[in-house]
Structures are given as structure tokens and as C-alpha cells.
From TrEMBL:
The gene is hrcA. This is Heat-inducible transcription repressor HrcA. It comes from Paracoccus limosus. NCBIfam families: hrcA (TIGR00331). One of its GO terms (molecular function) is DNA binding. Negative regulator of class I heat shock genes (grpE-dnaK-dnaJ and groELS operons). Prevents heat-shock induction of these operons. PANTHER family: HEAT-INDUCIBLE TRANSCRIPTION REPRESSOR HRCA. HAMAP family: HrcA (MF_00081). Belongs to the HrcA family. InterPro entries: GAF-like_dom_sf (IPR029016), HrcA (IPR002571), HrcA_C (IPR021153), WH-like_DNA-bd_sf (IPR036388), WH_DNA-bd_sf (IPR036390), WHTH_transcript_rep_HrcA_IDD (IPR023120). Keywords: Repressor, Stress response, Transcription, Transcription regulation.
């Protein structure tokens, strides 16, 4: 049954009981009993009536009761229903806004240092682990050279206009020759002056498609394969994680599950997936429990939002991860405001 249908099928009493259970659970992390709710509901009803309503909500898959506890807590479906249909997320508070703005500091500072400060501020504000995906560096290429290491291994040396030098090993096409590599390097240095790697690859691909560049097949194949490795491998992106200790602060924390989360955070390949999650929808996205494909840890939530550069292109993302009982109503506007502010500052920077 779709979540919107579930919510519309609830009467006023069931909806209020459900909302109270979820809000109490998010605040305390503890199951909520019927006697507690009888003191809080606007409509005065007996504990037995509340228990019946909670049983109905449990039958719908919105609530569950752990072990032998008489109290109820929301399921993953229940949390999703609450977040999408009942949660009230107001504007970021003045206190939180001031802390974020003070932390980001002077726009003339270093972008990397600013991202470190953003991550630290998010962690401190939300008492969770923060994640910040920094923008890729798009400096133009100044010089390219190929070096043969073995029949099946070659090295490309990339010198960028900002002074960075990178050495990347790749597998050249079978039968490559030293002269073919020199010819490929000469062409790329002439054709690619002032272009970024992404621009260079697109331009070369068009030229190869049109005329094969008057290069032999080996040189053309090497360019295609080498450039394919350069573009989109995430090597210029950086994932900053702060506040991991916050995930261990809960006395009930499952250390094995937290350890699994830390392992997932260390995987470089997940950086691209992190940005993909943010690009799949506009604004803040919330992933609850097993909905979060990036992290294999069930029982965690991720609140993430992309930020854009001056060309309205998504170049990174900021987010907060923690237990499913995050204070979503407060964290969502914090993440949203931080992403917007980072985007404005990135747009005014050159590097």
C-alpha cells in the first residue's frame, strides 16, 4: 500500500497517536507506552483505547514493539511516512545560522580549509557524523606524456596549469609502440592546451569519430582508453567525514554496526555514489535505514543536499548521518541552509 494512502486512511485519533509515538521516539530513543500517551493526547481517552490504536498501527507496519516491551516505536516505513507526511521542518534557527556563517569564515580563504570547517560545524550542530563532498578540481592540462613500463602497462604523466603533477598507470591497447605513444602525446599537447581533462576527452572523441585524427589505430585506441580512465574516476574529489565519535555516544550503540559504517565511509569508490544520491532529486533528500544504498549499515539515516557552482551545476554535497532517530525537523533545514551557503561561496571562488 502506498505511503500516501496509508496516511490518508488514518483517522484523526490514529494520526495523532502515530505522530506522538514517533516524536517521542525521536526525542528519547525509547519505546512509547499507552499510559504515557494518555497524558499527552489532546483527546482524553483510556489507555486501553490507545493500546488498540497502537495495535492497529502495528498491523499496518508503522509501529513495532521491541522484545517484551509494552511500548511501541516506529518502523522504517513509519519513519518514512512521518518524514514525508507529518514532519514540520521550519527555517533554520538564528543560532544555527550564525554558527554556520561564522564557521565558513572569509570567502577569500582556501576552499579546502572552508570545506573542513563546514564538516566540523555540521557535526557539532547536529551531534551526528557529517559528510562533505568537495568539488573536483578542473584545472586545465599544461602537458601530457606517456611512458611505456611493460607490454601491458604504461604511465601517463599529467601536468596541470595550477602546478599539480599526477602519474597514472593504465593498460594500453595491445601492440602499442613507442612512436605511437609519442605521436599521441604530441597531438594531445597541441590539441588540449588550455582544456580540462573532461573537455579534452570530449573534444578528442569528436575528432576521432570524425577523422580518426590521421593517427594509426593504436594511437587512437590509446588516446580513447587513456582518456576514459582519466575522466570520472573521482580522484579529484574528496570526502570529508567529521564527528564519528558522535555515533558512539549512544550507550545502546551496536559497535559492530558502527564499525561497518566506518568501513563503508572509508571506501573511496563510494564518493561517486554519495554525489549520485544527491543528484537524484532537488533539495534535501532523506534516506532511512535500508533505503540508504551508500551505507550497508541498517539502522542509520542520511540527510544530504547537493550544492551548485555559478553555472548551476552540481559540484558537491553536504550531509549528516546518524541513527534513524535523528531530529529530522531540525537537521533538514541546517543541511539545506549549509548547502545553499556553500554553493554561494563556491560560486564566488576561483579555486
Amino acid at each position: 500500500m502506498p505511503e500516501t494512502t496509508l496516511l490518508s486512511d488514518l483517522n484523526d485519533r490514529s494520526r495523532e497517536v502515530f505522530r506522538r509515538v514517533v516524536e517521542s521516539y525521536l526525542a528519547t530513543g525509547e519505546p512509547v507506552g499507552s499510559r504515557t500517551l494518555t497524558r499527552e493526547l489532546t483527546e482524553k481517552v483510556s489507555a486501553a483505547t490507545i493500546r488498540n490504536v497502537m495495535q492497529d498501527l502495528e498491523h499496518l507496519g508503522l509501529l513495532d514493539h521491541p522484545h517484551v516491551s509494552a511500548g511501541r516505536m516506529p518502523t522504517q516505513l513509519g519513519l518514512r511516512l512521518f518524514v514525508d507526511g507529518l514532519m514540520e521542518a521550519g527555517p533554520v534557527s538564528n543560532t544555527d545560522r550564525e554558527m554556520i556563517e561564522e564557521t565558513l569564515g572569509d570567502e577569500r580563504g582556501d576552499t579546502g580549509a572552508m570545506m573542513d570547517r563546514v564538516s566540523t560545524a555540521l557535526s557539532a550542530l547536529t551531534h551526528g557524523a557529517s559528510l562533505v563532498l568537495t568539488p573536483k578540481q578542473e584545472a586545465p592540462v599544461r602537458h601530457i606524456d606517456f611512458v611505456s613500463l611493460a607490454p601491458d602497462r604504461a604511465l601517463v604523466v599529467l601536468v596541470f596549469a595550477d602546478g599539480r603533477v599526477e602519474n597514472r598507470v593504465f593498460t594500453p591497447p595491445p601492440g602499442h609502440t613507442a612512436s605511437a605513444m609519442r605521436e599521441a602525446a604530441n597531438f594531445l599537447n597541441a590539441f588540449g592546451e588550455g582544456r580540462t581533462l573532461a573537455d579534452l576527452r570530449r573534444g578528442v572523441s569528436r575528432e576521432i569519430e570524425a577523422s580518426r585524427l590521421k593517427l594509426d589505430q593504436i594511437a587512437a585506441a590509446m588516446i580513447e582508453q587513456g582518456l576514459a580512465m582519466w575522466d570520472g574516476d573521482g580522484s579529484d574529489a574528496r570526502l570529508i567525514v567529521r564527528g564519528r565519535a558522535n555515533l558512539l555516544a549512544d550507550e545502546a550503540a551496536d559497535l559492530d554496526r558502527i564499525r561497518t559504517l566506518f568501513d563503508d565511509l572509508e571506501r573511496k569508490r563510494d564518493i561517486a555514489e554519495f554525489l549520485d544520491l544527491a543528484e537524484q532529486g532537488e533539495g534535501v533528500r532523506i534516506f532511512i535505514g535500508s533505503e540508504n544504498k551508500l551505507f550497508s549499515l541498517s539502522g542509520s539515516s542520511l540527510v544530504v543536499s547537493p550544492y551548485m557552482n555559478a553555472d548551476r551545476k552540481i559540484v558537491g554535497a553536504v550531509g549528516v548521518i546518524g541513527p534513524t532517530r535523528l531530529n529530522y525537523g531540525r537537521i533538514v533545514p541546517i543541511v539545506d541552509y549549509t548547502a545553499q551557503l556553500v554553493g554561494r561561496m563556491i560560486s564566488g571562488r576561483k579555486g
